[in-house]
Design brief:
The complex is a heterodimer of chains A (280) and B (329). With 280 residues, chain A is an all-alpha fold. Chain A is 74% helix and 0% strand. By secondary structure, chain B is mostly helical. In chain B, 70% of the residues lie in helices and 0% in strands. The chains are: A mainly alpha (280), B mainly alpha (329). At the A-B interface, helix 1, helix 4, helix 5, helix 6 and helix 7 of A face helix 2, helix 4, helix 5, helix 6 and helix 7 of B. Chain B: InterPro entries: ABC_transporter_permease, MetI-like, MetI-like_sf.
Chain lengths: 280, 329
């Protein structure tokens, strides 16, 4: 396609600021993580004077980072897996069935997007405490299970919505002909729908994982020292008299790299899922 | 009741399957009727436990005087009626005034953040729509802030905004010589700029992702046909891309607005639980009065008002969206 000069200029005008805006903080994170503490406390230097990997060693002993890491991993993976499974069932029902209450169900699911988190933070806290009280042992309050339940529900509305639109894009003839051939509803879902919906499912999983991995508000109130996750744990480098900025950056890098790498591998699915799904 | 996929395969000759069939006590039509309900049961249970019941409890709390005195025994807190709402909406007194200011601030913040993120994301999608060398790399690069865990990105910005050892002041005073004194960014009036910049940094990649995904679904022959007819690149963008993208953009704008208006992470990580006045966004404001001053009744009343506002915005959006869609249908 022939390009006009004005468009080529426009491209530069957009891309240069976009690249700088994106890259500079990433560069700060990486370059600060390899500076000794003394260099970090003075004026900012673009190029590190001395390079050390010590912060990457220290982060594990300054705060129990490994412990937080395991908590985040357990909570996030469980919440993602459960959320995806539940969203698959619910979106299959929405996409392929007509039933009484469908409108109400979809409406409530969408309406939850408008609930401010602070509104149900305290009620949820009270409900968890009371469930535990009536059970006689701590099941939900400030436990990883409580956090899993919370996060999986947070990601459900958007997941159901995105997946239902994705399933709507899969021709009905596919599963209807399977049903004619004698497959059950579940058989059609598992053997026909799920394989064709893979990009949508991966997109939903990526979305859920990132949401749960990055959540801060509920993590700050609904965890104790045993169940603390990274989003809160990472801030404990800052509560000391000295802020260990180099360690903060090193720890941020360590907890980000797995996510970013995973995201890069899966991003084409996310784009495919959004193209067919939420974007419709 | 209608079920689009009857559980008995109606297209096969009726007798066949029934003969091979299930025992008569297993009523197949009931199963067909039940299937969608069984499918949504897990979602309904979780929504009830984590979203619906807490929200009802939250609305209830907004009608009682739940302060620290009653927090351990919340069921005995006295009924407040509409008092909490009265305090929140009496803009003459200090609490009402603070809420109004916080609301105005959040509105300005959301409009600026959504507007800039959207324009930035849209422009980037447009220039990356045509193939050129390095396009894939740039695409991945721009999505990194979105993939990064929120706190990691925000903490990095917090470091950059430090007065004495941050990058921003180094850039402004020593590199560009724009100011003599190093300004504070995380306290005072500049805090609004700080929270806005960080939020845009996190939001615009999502706008980019959505618009890029939308543009990928536009078939190439539309552009080719337009080019043959002599349309310039700008005309193609104006009449093809923007036209097709309108429904996508309207969903995107609503989502961004709802998310930005409820933004909590950025101010919370940048400033801690008590932000400077210029960055006292609504959610943090509510969090403060609930968990710092322990006035949960008042906090819940403000949350309910916030929710009502978002519902009104969404309803207006739905009306507007229906008109837009009709025009482009």
């Amino acid at each position: 396609m022939r390009e006009q000069t004005s468009f080529r200029i426009f491209r530069w005008v957009v891309l240069v600021p976009a690249v700088l805006f994106t890259v500079v903080p990433l560069y700060v994170m990486v370059s600060t993580a390899v500076k000794p503490l003394g260099d970090v406390l003075g004026e900012f230097r673009w190029v590190p004077k001395t390079i050390t990997l010590q912060p990457f060693v220290d982060i594990w002993s300054t705060v129990p980072l490994a412990h937080y890491f395991v908590n985040s991993l357990v909570v996030t993976t469980s919440a993602t897996a459960l959320s995806v499974v539940i969203a698959i069932f619910a979106s299959y029902a929405i996409s392929r069935y007509r039933f009484r209450g469908k409108g109400a169900f979809s409406g409530v699911v969408l309406a939850t997007q408008m609930f401010p988190g602070v509104l149900f933070l305290l009620p949820l806290f009270l409900i968890f405490v009371n469930i535990d009280k009536s059970l006689g042992f701590t099941l939900l309050y400030q436990t990883r299970l409580g956090l899993i339940a919370t996060y999986l529900t947070f990601t459900l509305p958007f997941s159901i919505w995105m997946l239902a639109s994705y399933l709507n894009g899969i021709p009905r003839d596919l599963d209807e002909s399977a049903r004619v051939d004698g497959a059950s509803a579940m058989g059609a879902l598992f053997r026909i729908i799920l394989p064709s919906a893979r990009p949508g499912i991966i997109a939903v999983a990526v979305y859920s994982f990132m949401t749960a991995w990055g959540e801060i508000l509920f993590a700050s109130q609904m965890t104790n020292s045993a169940s603390r996750t990274l989003s809160v744990g990472l801030q404990s480098y800052s509560t000391e008299a000295n802020v260990y900025w180099n360690q903060v950056m090193a720890a941020s890098l360590v907890v980000s790299v797995p996510i970013v790498v995973g995201f890069m591998f899966l991003q084409r699915y996310l784009v495919a899922g959004l193209t067919a799904g939420a974007v419709k | 009741m209608t079920v689009t996929l009857p559980d008995q395969p109606a297209k096969t000759p009726a007798g066949q399957l029934d003969d091979a069939g299930k025992p008569p006590w297993r009523d197949r039509i009931n199963w067909a009727r039940l299937t969608p309900y069984l499918l949504i049961v897990p979602a309904v249970l979780m929504e009830l436990l984590v979203h619906v019941i807490p929200m009802v409890v939250g609305i209830f709390i907004s009608f009682i005087k739940l302060t620290q005195v009653y927090i351990t025994n919340w069921s005995s807190a006295p009924w407040a009626g509409l008092d909490n709402y009265g305090v929140a909406l009496r803009f003459g007194n200090s609490q009402g005034k603070a809420l109004l200011q916080s609301f105005g601030l959040s509105l300005a913040f959301a409009v600026l953040c959504v507007g800039i993120s959207f324009l930035f994301g849209m422009a980037t999608s447009l220039v990356l729509q045509r193939k050129f060398r390095g396009r894939g790399l740039l695409r991945t690069l721009f999505l990194i802030p979105y993939a990064l865990p929120a706190y990691a990105g925000i903490i990095t910005w917090k470091f950059m905004f430090q007065r004495d050892n941050g990058l921003i002041n180094e850039l402004l005073t020593n590199d560009l010589h724009l100011t003599g004194d190093r300004p504070f960014w995380l306290i005072g009036g500049n805090a609004f700029v700080a929270v806005l910049v960080v939020s845009i940094w996190q939001q615009w990649p999502f706008a980019f992702l959505m618009t890029m995904a939308g543009m990928q679904s536009i078939p190439d022959d539309l552009y080719e046909a337009a080019a043959i007819d002599g349309a310039s690149v700008w005309q193609q963008i104006r009449y093809i891309t923007l036209g097709i993208m309108t429904p996508i953009n309207s969903v995107l704008l609503l989502l961004l607005f709802l998310w930005t208006f409820r933004e909590f992470n950025t101010p919370f990580v940048l400033f801690g639980a008590v932000p400077p006045k210029s960055a006292d966004l609504l959610t943090v404001h509510i969090y403060n009065s609930s968990f710092i001053t322990w006035n949960f009744g008042f906090g819940s009343a403000m949350s309910v008002l916030l929710m009502l506002f978002l519902i009104v915005v969404s309803a207006l959006w739905a009306l507007w969206n229906r008109r837009v869609n009709r025009r482009y249908a």
